[in-house]
Amino acid sequence: MEHLLHLLSLSSSAGGVLNLSALVLGLAALAFSLRALLRALAGRSIAGSLAIGGGACGAALLLQMLELLRRSFAGDWGGLYDVGPATALVSGLLLVTVLALTTTAALLSGSKRP
Question: Which of 23, 21, 14, 25 minimizes the C-alpha distance to 70?
Fold first, then answer.
């Protein structure tokens, strides 16, 4: 893992790729979690949407952690102080939102309707 992060710290574009990838995966996590909720409301299967939404959320959070580690390996302490709190806030909001959507979808899909 250290070797991978060392290689990432050598590339100036690695941070942009990690951040952009995390953003795309975060949006996908929200979209698939919302899709699961809409499918649950319609009485359709939600398993695929739940799996993709949860996986995308986890991958987005992992990429954000790798970006913070990349900055620390590069010695970009100013950058860490600048983006660290915002990263923690946005990551927490993503996790809470996806968890709320998927939990609601799972509860709705399991409930019996007349």
Answer: 14
- With b for 16 or more beta-carbon neighbours within 10 A and e for fewer, the 78-111 pattern comes to ebbeebeeebeebbeebbebbeebbeebbebbee
Note the pLDDT of residue 16.
Answer: 84
pLDDT-derived band at 70, boundaries 50, 70, 90: confident
Query: Can you tell me the distance from the alpha carbon of 44 to that of 41, in angstroms, rounded to the nearest whole number?
Result: 8
Q: Does residue 112 carry a pLDDT above 60?
A: no
Largest CA distance in the chain: 61
Query: Among residues 20, 7, 32, which one has the least CA distance to residue 63?
Result: 20
